[in-house]
Amino acid sequence: MLTAKANYLADHYGYDISIITCVQQNSSSNTFPLSSKVKQINISIPYYFQYKYKYPKRIWVKIKMYRRLQRTITNTIREINPDIIIGVCHYKANIVSSIKCKAMIIIECHEIRSFTLSGVHQHRSFFSKLYMHYYRNLYFRTIEKKADAIVTLTEGDKLLWKKAKRVEVIPNFSTIAVNQLSDCEAKRVIAVGRLEKEKGFERLLEAWKPIVHKHPDWKLDIFGEGTLREKLESYIQENGLSNVMIHQRTTDISSEYQHSSICVMTSFCEGFALVLLEALKHGVPCVAFDCPYGPRNIIKDNNCGFLVEDGNIELLTDKICTLIEDSKLRSRFSEAAINQAKGFNEDVIMEMWNSLFKTLIQQKRK
Fold it and tell me: pLDDT, tens digit, for every residue of 14-29?
């Protein structure tokens, strides 16, 4: 998304864009190509070196790296002298918000506020958890007090930033190229995502168990990689889910959507749920848990798919079966899916960013 937005702003609106990466080394290449009009600056601070050391030395290294990172980012920003600074995701957003310069500062949230830095409490001592609780609260207060605007992906997340100066909702868009739409005739359900706890694939497999016996000619294909692969594969074998297969991440996911008739998402939380948007663009109806906060902003219930009460496994199974058993309903949902996806067109979303920039620049001049 960072690459797509930067390229669009430079190529279509003529913005002078510079991207500063903090830990990326100059020798490493980008996964997605940047426009020749976009400058990239790798300040290459080895911030995570702190974890090579044990306490108390780790604390000293952490402080040293933090100060170096703060100083280098600030000096780099001052050299560029931009009109607008965007802190992408939560990484060091408190540092970005606190930079003393003339630029208007935006913090762009790609995950739900309530889950930001939530993992820092895991596997820590009591005093360490206490410190991280204090740090997390200070982190949010700093952003809300000093950032000129916060951009969230959903209305639900926007409501959590109650003390911010300004909060705007600007969703993501999908850059995936659609060469062919799904005809929704293939007896195949697809799920895509990281094989991690928050993506809820265990819930999906539990919901699929009755479907194995009811519709043995249909199959479920999961695409993704992560730490839960072995656990999920063991669950599949132990429960006799013969029509379920876990595939490695693919660079041609579009082809997989083309040959699928239903897309399912069972996450515990989603910042935006880009997978659902990709599926809709291919005309694939979606079934998803109504988790915080992404799916409800993309799926129109009983229109281009089904939103299911979060955690209701039995109802999820029922809705998947409803689509499996009704080809006409799949066809109707497919048409609605394509129309729904148009609301997240790249031109529409980037004009929202352009309008925000213009508003902030006017505010700065006043």
Answer: 999 999 998 888 778 8
Q: Looking at domain 83-173+351-366, what is its CATH homologous superfamily?
A: Glycogen Phosphorylase B; (3.40.50.2000)
Locate 139 and state its tokens.
């982190």
Distance CA(315)–CA(318), nearest Å, equals 5
Give dist(CA 91, CA 22) in Å, integer: 9
Residues in the chain: 366
Contact yes or no for 278/259 (Cβ under 8 A): no
Backbone angles phi, psi at 107, to 5 degrees: -110, 120
| 22: nearest Cα among 55, 54, 39, 45 | 45
Q: Which amino acid is at 327?
A: S
Strand order in the sheet with 244-247: 244-247, 219-223, 188-192, 262-265, 286-289, 305-308
DSSP-derived secondary structure letter, 81: -
pTM assigned to the model: 0.87
pLDDT tens-digit series, residues 156-194: 999 999 999 999 999 999 989 999 999 999 999 999 999
* Nearest by Cα to 201 from 241, 232, 243: 232
Please check whether the two domains, 83-173+351-366 and 188-342, share a CATH topology. yes
Give the β-pairing of 286-289 and 262-265.
parallel
In angstroms, the Cα distances linking 73 to 10, 105, 155, 190, 359 are 22, 14, 31, 42, 25
Any bridge partners for residue 88, and if so which? 108
**In the chain, domain spans:** 83-173+351-366, 188-342
The CATH number of 188-342, from 3.40.50.2000, 3.40.50.10540, 3.40.50.150, 3.30.70.120, is 3.40.50.2000
